[in-house]
Amino acid sequence: MEVLCYNTLEGEAIGEIVVKKSRFIANIFHVESEDEALSILERMRKQYWDARHNCYGYIIGKNKELVRFSDDGEPGGTAGKPILEVIKGRDLTDILVVVTRYFGGVLLGTGGLVRAYTDATIEGLSNADLVTVTYMQKLSVEVDYNTIGKLKYILSTDGIMICDETYTDKVSVVIAIPVPDTDKVTDKLVDFTGGRAIISKLEKIYMGLSIS
User: Fold this and answer.
1) Which of 143, 129, 212 is nearest to 173 (CA)?
2) Which end of the chain is more exposed for a tag (fewer CB within 10 A), N or C?
């Protein structure tokens, strides 16, 4: 069974904090496979080759089936797990967070490290474009020219997205609606047009809408 919706981010984001002269740089990426995550991790290690630690956490899969994290030399449980807890707290998936630390000469202690890696991740996410990805059914709705104005009005009123429009002897619009709403919306459009609309199911797709 397909997941009906999940939260992730678009593209990349970065955030930085300084704690007692140590720099914590959070780089955040949208990833869709472990190979992609590992490739980015290798790139981050090369980019920040002079840093003491490149800690990370990632969750991949619509069902969040793949979860990994690393403290990369920090005391156990003080870096990778706090990064992961922020990701889980935001209910995100298909995401990799790499927090690079440049040591400033002052020991932070385990509690200080947990807070620093947590806060760095939060700072990075504050700069990210987060999206809710919803499983959508695309429908083709064909009507005559006398009905198209009314059809567009009800689609707009209900917040239904028009993906495409084709004008020939009739007008065909392609709309996208959440899969669970398919029957309800179909019945409403048929009723609204007095049965004149020709409605056909097209493919199902995942579509993202911004939440930040």
Assistant:
1) 143
2) N
Residue-level length of the chain:
212
Q: How far is CA 153 from CA 5, 18, 159, 161, 191, in A?
A: 27, 52, 10, 12, 15
Closest CA to 24 of 142, 137, 108, 81: 108
CA distance 176 to 197: 16
Cα–Cα distance, 83 to 163 (Å, whole number): 37
Residue position matching structure tokens 């955040």: 28
The backbone torsions φ and ψ at residue 106, rounded to the nearest 5 degrees and listed phi first, read -115, 125
Burial 109-133 (b: 16+ CB within 10 A, else e): eeeebbbbbbbbbebbbeebebbeb
- Tens-place pLDDT, residues 126-157: 999 999 999 999 999 999 998 898 899 889 99
pTM given for the model: 0.86
pLDDT tens figures, 59-92: 999 999 999 999 999 999 999 999 999 999 999 9
Strands (E), 20-143: 22-30, 53-60, 66-70, 95-102, 129-143
- Give the model's pLDDT for residue 207: 87
